């Protein structure tokens, strides 16, 4: 098995899906957490000047979605056939749209009008993307309750992670999307995910 080192800030942010993929796959890795104080000195020494980074036997990968897709392929979490693989990618792309809008709420503007627009943009992205994800999940003829196919995939893991911050502020945020809610519950009940969440360091975001 390769030696994995996953480097990201000491928080969930854009790195948490990677940690969760390792967790549900049961694959050991070094969870290297960088403080905000350490980052300026380290930034120029990284290939892209950004994180997360994934080191695989000394070879470094950059770009979060590249890393997550690579891990999904390595761990068999990318779908069982070509159509399922496309469906997994499709769901993940819609989640990226939601998370991009949601990140702006983590550090909201102080101007009331600007804040109003940020909130409206998030709600628009949420309604559009979650509606599309519900449609895609409706195409899954398997009765196992996963987003794609008959077993857990990266789509399920990222469906769970993508809404953690939003749900912590508004428990009803997914009430219009029953398939997503049910899938998240299924992921949360997975033994390896429960173990990971129980020992995960508590951070604001």
Distance between the termini: 31 Å
Based on the structure given, which CATH architecture of the largest domain is correct? Up-down Bundle
Count of distinct strands? 4
What's the helical proportion of residues? 55-70%
Give an overview of the whole structure:
This protein has 205 residues and is α+β, with helices and mostly antiparallel strands. Helix content is 56%, strand content 9%. It has nine helices and four strands, in the order E-H-E-H-E-E-H-H-H-H-H-H-H. It has helices spanning 16-25, 39-43, 64-74, 82-106, 112-138, 154-162, 164-169, 178-189, 191-199; strands at residues 4-9, 30-34, 53-56, 59-61. Helix 1 (16-25) packs across helix 6. The relative contact order is 0.14. GO terms for molecular function: glutathione transferase activity; structural constituent of eye lens. This is S-crystallin SL11. It holds the Pfam family GST_C_3.
Give a summary of the structure in a few sentences:
By secondary structure, this protein is α+β, with helices and mostly antiparallel strands. The protein is built from nine helices and four strands. The protein has a four-stranded mixed sheet with strand order 2-1-3-4.
